[in-house]
Request: fold
Amino acid sequence: MIYGLLFWEFFKIGLFAIGGGMVTIPFLFDLTKKYNWFSAEDLTNMIAVSQSTPGPVGVNMATYAGFQTAGVWGGIVATFGVVLPSVIIVIGVSKLLGRYKDSPWVIEIMAAIRPAVVALILLAGVELLKLSVTDRISALFGGAFFLMVYFFKKSPIFYIVLSAVLGVVLKL
Reply:
């Protein structure tokens, strides 16, 4: 029963998470409310692990969430569920897009999808902000790192290592 439910929930996420792995976050937040598989705090850990491991973030999060819920087979089932819609859609769209890519109707549909993707990513950012900024120190560090990323344009690896070192040194 749990495997079928995991497959179905992650299949739906894979079907509607257009725009990349970060778009899956609002869907995963919904799962924390709908099922007792993992908490919102667990989800923040999943996001951190998924972003720091190789591979697509959405697939990594599905694997992690499935594993957290039902072990190794849960991870496999959730991963298959989240990937399958993309495989089906890419095969179908590639056949149709070559034929209709210059159609005004297709161009309008693609243009209409973009704002929805941006909205889903912004929603994910707001939800992560609510979970991550728990006190003044975390707000201060978040703001400082935002400004450093914005103004100094260093590699993301630099900021990840810097924040990890500061976290250990300051015992945060």
About this structure: The longest helix spans residues 57-100. Residues 2-132 form one domain. The helical segments are 2-16, 24-34, 40-52, 57-100, 104-132, 136-152, 156-169. The CA atoms of residues 19 and 117 lie 6 Å apart.
